[in-house]
Write a structure and sequence with these properties.
By secondary structure, this protein is of the alpha+beta class. It is built from 3 helices and 5 strands.
């Protein structure tokens, strides 16, 4: 193969390599100066955590004694579905005196997949096919008799 053909193929395929570079997206809490793991149990309080880390991503559903800072990194190649490459969840639990009791760290390996039930709730009646939906009302509409009240003839009398 000649050098010109190799050069031409190389120049034509060069733009395609840009599609293979993953695009990274950062979601959730991004630490500026202080990291959530820098929080010291029995030293820091709720107000010092708020001052260092800012407001949490979410609070516990059952009580307000647990704050969670959640962040993840997603990579997407071209038009494919994004994949989570890194996930970090830091849970900070507070005691009765608003001091930090413990700092828990989780990652993507600590999560569990949840299988949803694929059951459907049955409904009354039956499903209509395409032709039944299109032609189902033909003959089902009753026209008014001549002695019935209509918008143009509110009394129903023959004229």
């Amino acid at each position: 193969m000649s050098r010109r053909a190799i050069l031409a193929i190389g120049l034509l395929t060069l733009p395609l390599t840009a599609c293979l570079t993953p695009a990274r997206d950062f979601h959730g809490y991004v630490a500026d100066d202080a990291q959530p793991r820098d929080i010291k149990p029995d030293e820091d309080t709720r107000s010092s955590v708020l001052a260092q880390l800012g407001s949490p991503s979410t609070e516990s559903v059952f009580d307000d004694k647990t704050w969670m800072y959640i962040s993840d990194v997603q990579e997407r190649i071209a038009f494919l579905k994004p994949k989570i490459t890194k996930r970090s969840i830091t849970a900070i639990r507070f005691g009765e005196d608003d001091k930090v009791d413990e700092v828990l760290e989780y990652n993507a390996a600590d999560g569990e997949l949840i299988n949803y039930a694929a059951r459907e709730t049955p409904t009354r009646g039956r499903e209509l096919g395409l032709w039944e939906q299109i032609f189902g009302t033909v003959g089902g509409v009753r026209l008014p008799n001549s002695d019935e009240a209509t918008p143009g003839n509110p009394t129903g009398r023959r004229q």
